[in-house]
C-alpha cells in the first residue's frame, strides 16, 4: 500500500521496516509512542509493561517505548497506527474526540467516584470494554484503558461552592461537553491551546483553568494563579491503541501477555500518579497558593449541576452509539457502588 505523503517523513523518522510478522516468528519488536515526558507516569509504567512482556514471552516480544512526541504528535501517531506506519500509541482520550466522538464521554465531570478502587471497578465492570470497543470500528484496536490522574480547578479568585464560579472565564480543552458543563455553573469556557495557557492566565485573558496537580506544577500555572480547589472533578484517561493487523498478527499468547501486563500495572500507575500529585501539591502550597478542599456537600452540589449538563451535551452529539455507551457506564457505576 502506498502511504499518503504526510506519513513518509514519519516512516523515515522512526525507521520502520516493511517486514511481515511471519519473518520474525520467534521474535517481534513493537514500537509504541506517546506525547508525555520520560518522567511521566505513562512512560515509567509503559517501560514496566515492556519488561514484563519480555519476561512473560521469554524474550520473544520486545516493546520499545518512545516518549515526548519523538514519533510525532498525538494526532499524527494515532493516524500512523491506523495506516500501519506505527505499531501502537498510548494517548490521552481528551485529544481523541475528533477521531472518536464517543471519547468525549470522558469529558463529563464527576464521571468516576473519587475512590480509585471504585473507579477501577467501573472500568472493569463492562464500561472499559464498551469504551474500547468504540475505537475498534475506526481502524484501530483498543487494548487498554487506564487512569492518568484527575483534574483540579485553579483560579485568580477563591472557588469552592458552585456559586463561587459565577462570572469567571476558564480555559478548557476544545470540547463542547466541557463548555456546557462549565456553563451550568455560570462560567464562560474558552478553548485555548495548551501552550498559550500560561500567558492567558498571566494576562487575565482567563481567570482559571483545570488540570491535574502535577501538570499545574510542571507547567508553573501556580505562578499566575492564587487559588487551587481540590475538586477532583475530571477524569484524565488514556488508551493504548494498536494497528489491527499488527495486533491480530501476534500469537494469542503474546496478545494475552501484553493485555495482562497493561491491566496488571494499573494499581502501580494509580500509586505513581498519586505520589506525583502529592509532591506537586506540597510545592504549590509552599509557593503561597491558597488551597481549598470543598466539603462533600459542596462537591455533591457541583456534580448535581455539572454532570447533567455535560451528560446531555454528550448524548445530543453522539446519537444511539453514545446512548448505548452511557448505559454501559451507568450499569457499571451502579454495580460498583452497590
TrEMBL record:
<protein>
    <submittedName>
        <fullName>TRAP transporter substrate-binding protein</fullName>
    </submittedName>
</protein>
<keyword id="KW-0813">Transport</keyword>
<keyword id="KW-0732">Signal</keyword>
<dbReference type="GO" id="GO:0030288">
    <property type="term" value="C:outer membrane-bounded periplasmic space"/>
</dbReference>
<dbReference type="InterPro" id="IPR018389">
    <property type="entry name" value="DctP_fam"/>
</dbReference>
<comment type="similarity">
    <text>Belongs to the bacterial solute-binding protein 7 family.</text>
</comment>
<dbReference type="GO" id="GO:0055085">
    <property type="term" value="P:transmembrane transport"/>
</dbReference>
<dbReference type="InterPro" id="IPR004682">
    <property type="entry name" value="TRAP_DctP"/>
</dbReference>
<feature type="signal peptide">
    <location>
        <begin position="1"/>
        <end position="25"/>
    </location>
</feature>
<dbReference type="InterPro" id="IPR038404">
    <property type="entry name" value="TRAP_DctP_sf"/>
</dbReference>
<dbReference type="Pfam" id="PF03480">
    <property type="entry name" value="DctP"/>
</dbReference>
<keyword id="KW-0574">Periplasm</keyword>
Amino acid at each position: 500500500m502506498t502511504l499518503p505523503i504526510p506519513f513518509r517523513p514519519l516512516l523515515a523518522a522512526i525507521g520502520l521496516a516493511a517486514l511481515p510478522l511471519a519473518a520474525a516468528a520467534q521474535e517481534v519488536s513493537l514500537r509504541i509512542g506517546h506525547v508525555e515526558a520520560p518522567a511521566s507516569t505513562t512512560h515509567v509504567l509503559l517501560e514496566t509493561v515492556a519488561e514484563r512482556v519480555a519476561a512473560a514471552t521469554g524474550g520473544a516480544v520486545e516493546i520499545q517505548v518512545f516518549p515526548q512526541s519523538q514519533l510525532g504528535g498525538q494526532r499524527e501517531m494515532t493516524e500512523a497506527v491506523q495506516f500501519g506506519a506505527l505499531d501502537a500509541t498510548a494517548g490521552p482520550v481528551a485529544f481523541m474526540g475528533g477521531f472518536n466522538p464517543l471519547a468525549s464521554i470522558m469529558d463529563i465531570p464527576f464521571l468516576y467516584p473519587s475512590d480509585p478502587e471504585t473507579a477501577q471497578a467501573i472500568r472493569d465492570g463492562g464500561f472499559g470494554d464498551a469504551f474500547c470497543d468504540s475505537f475498534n470500528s475506526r481502524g484501530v484496536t483498543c487494548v487498554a484503558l487506564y487512569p492518568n490522574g484527575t483534574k483540579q480547578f485553579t483560579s485568580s479568585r477563591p472557588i469552592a461552592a458552585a456559586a463561587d464560579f459565577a462570572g469567571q472565564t476558564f480555559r478548557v480543552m476544545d470540547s463542547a461537553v466541557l463548555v456546557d458543563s462549565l456553563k451550568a455553573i455560570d462560567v464562560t469556557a474558552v478553548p485555548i491551546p495548551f501552550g498559550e495557557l500560561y500567558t492567558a492566565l498571566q494576562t487575565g485573558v482567563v481567570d482559571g483553568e483545570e488540570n491535574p496537580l502535577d501538570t499545574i506544577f510542571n507547567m508553573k500555572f501556580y505562578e499566575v494563579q492564587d487559588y487551587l480547589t481540590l475538586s477532583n472533578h475530571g477524569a484524565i484517561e488514556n488508551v493504548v491503541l494498536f494497528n489491527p493487523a499488527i495486533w491480530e498478527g501476534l500469537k494469542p499468547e503474546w496478545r494475552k501477555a501484553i493485555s495482562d501486563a497493561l491491566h496488571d500495572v494499573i494499581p502501580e500507575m494509580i500509586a505513581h500518579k498519586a505520589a506525583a500529585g502529592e509532591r506537586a501539591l506540597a510545592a504549590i502550597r509552599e509557593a503561597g497558593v491558597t488551597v481549598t478542599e470543598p466539603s462533600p456537600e459542596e462537591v455533591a452540589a457541583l456534580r448535581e449541576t455539572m454532570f447533567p449538563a455535560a451528560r446531555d451535551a454528550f448524548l445530543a452529539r453522539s446519537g444511539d452509539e453514545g446512548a448505548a455507551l452511557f448505559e454501559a457506564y451507568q450499569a457499571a457505576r451502579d454495580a460498583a457502588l452497590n
